[in-house]
Each structure stands twice: as structure tokens, then as C-alpha cells.
Amino acid sequence: xxxxxxxxxxxxxxxxxxxxxxxxxxxxxxxxxxxxxxxxxxxxxxxxxxxxxxxxxxxxxxxxxxxxxxxxxxxxxxxxxxxxxxxxxxxxxxxxxxxxxxxxxxxxxxxxxxxxxxxxxxxxxxxxxxxxxxxxxxxxxxxxxxxxxxxxxxxxxxxxxxxxxxxxxxxxxxxxxxxxxxxxxxxxxxxxxxxxxxxxxxxxxxxxxxxxxxxxxxxxxxxxxxxxxxxxxxxxxxxxxxxxxxxxxxxxxxxxxxxxxxxxxxxxxxxxxxxxxxxxxxxxxxxxxxxxxxxxxxxxxxxxxxxxxxxxxxxxxxxxxxxxxxxxxxxxxxxxxxxxxx
Length: 342
Ligand SMILES: [Zn+2]
Known about the structure:
This protein has 342 residues and is of the alpha+beta class. It has a domain at 191-342. Helices cover 36% and strands 16% of the residues. The protein has helices spanning 87-108, 130-133, 166-183, 199-218, 257-275, 278-296, 308-315, 318-331, and strands at 3-6, 15-21, 27-32, 44-45, 48-52, 55-59, 62-66, 69-70, 75-78, 81-84, 120-123, 140-143, 148-151. Strands 4, 5, 8, 11, 12 and 13 form a six-stranded mixed β-sheet that branches. The chain has a five-stranded mixed β-sheet with strand order 1-9-10-2-3. Strands 6-7 form a two-stranded antiparallel sheet. The chain is globular. Zinc ion (ZN) is lined by residues 171, 175, 207, 210.
């Protein structure tokens, strides 16, 4: 048996040890191929490069990521398998692998996400303006217009670190996809500024769409649970818009986008269950973002986010339309209805 400890030189390994989600939602730590990660010691590849530190700051009203040091992963290589010698390296491999899986799932169903890559990935950057554009965030985030993922250290010990959770990575990628599909350019400003009358509802739609991706890419409606016990984010909960703050434009203090967001996400999951079609649902929820943004770009009212539901109905095939109408009627009763539904 030959093994070698490698740092800063090339590595002859075709599989990397990383967190992987199983079909029942549990996690294992096992070797896997991550073909897009061309240089696993320095975390550089087709999807982008990870860098340590650096500054994520506002420049002219937009977020921008600058600087950062080259990362060096310390790994043991044995029989073509590279195993990081610390949890940090394991998290980095896991994040990159999940990002590749999310990209592959979206490309397989024809979502045009190529412009998102290469994306910047900043590990524990300095974020002097974090209160402006990133909250609420715990330790994995996506900064639109900077086109940068942010990975921070977990604040507490978790079974699966957040940045190593496949659904969380798909969720964060969802913010990038939402931004790309709604603006056409990962470096563009957001379609709707924070002072837009519908901005809070849109932030819920953004979170909800990201949870749709987390659920649909992993196949797990409780994808966050291995990292955080958050029953309110369960895509199979009975949550309805009437139970949450369904008039977000009237909220004045610290609006929580996840509550209404979970209603949007549960609606998509209802469609997935009713049609028994993961890929078709994934394509539909993404197409609907693009059409919604095109149709609503000039909207200046508070209800703009709800009209995303109209697109789910308008773009769906016969089976999806029926499922979407039933889900919307159930989840948004008394709050919003789609005219095209019977
Ligand atoms: Zn989010």
C-alpha cells in the first residue's frame, strides 16, 4: 500500500472523500468523482475557484468580491482516493461536489444556467456590509451581482455542516439561478430594488424558489434537517399563505422571508408529488421565473411575487396545470387566486 501526504503539488486521485446524501436523506462520507474540480488541492475547476478570505463589499450599490488567498487542501492519497485530513477540506470537497450535482440536474432538464459559471466561492470572507444584502444568512449564502458563494464556519456542531449539505448547496445555487433567470446576467443588479413595493414578497419568492431547488435536486422535502432542525421549512407541511404574513408589503420591521417562501416551495412540491415528475417540475419552476420576470419587469405593485403562480399554470402541460391549480387553491386560499384556473 502506497500513500502520500500532499500539499501544494499535483495529485493523482480520481475520487475525493466528501459528504453524500443517500436516497433516504441520510448522509455518508465516501469517495466520489468530482470531474469539474480539476485541481482538488487548490480548489480550482470548471465551476470556479474557491478562495480564502478576501472582501465582499458594496461598490456603487452592487456587491463585489475582491482578493482572497489561494486555498491549499491537505489530503492523504491512497489507491486513487484523496481524503482531506481535516473537516474544512471535507466541507470544501462536499460543497464543490454538490454544486456540480446541482448544475448537472439543471442542465439535464434544459435550464440555461451556463452563464452562472465560473462562480466565485469565498471561504470566510470579510463582509463589512453584511446587514445590507445578505441577511438572513447563517453560513452559506449567495451574493447576487457579485456572483459569489460565501461559505462561513458553522456556529455550532452539526451532524452535517451546512455547506456540506446537498440541499443547502442546491438552495444557495437556487438564489444564483433565480437572479440569472430574472435578469439574464449574474453580474446585473437585482430586477427589483429593495425599495420596490413588492420587494418583501419577492424576497419570499426567492427563498421559496431556492427551497424548491433544494427539495427537487435532492428528492428530499426535509433536506435541511440533517444540518438544522427546522420543521417550518418542511415542503410537506400543511402551511398556507393565510397562516403566514401574506401581506409582506405591510411588514415594517425585520421581515422573515422564509414563512411565505415555504408556501411557494410547498406549492411546487405539491406539483411534483401530484405529477410524480421531478424533472418536469424542476423545468417548470425555472421556466416560470424567466417568464415571470419578463412579464413583470415594469410592475410597481405589492402583489408582483404572487403572479409567479400564474406562470406555473400558464407554462405547465395539462397535468401540471391541473396540479398547479389544485396546489395554489389549497396553499393560497383567501390570499391569491389564478384567473386561468377553473
Ligand atoms: Zn436562501
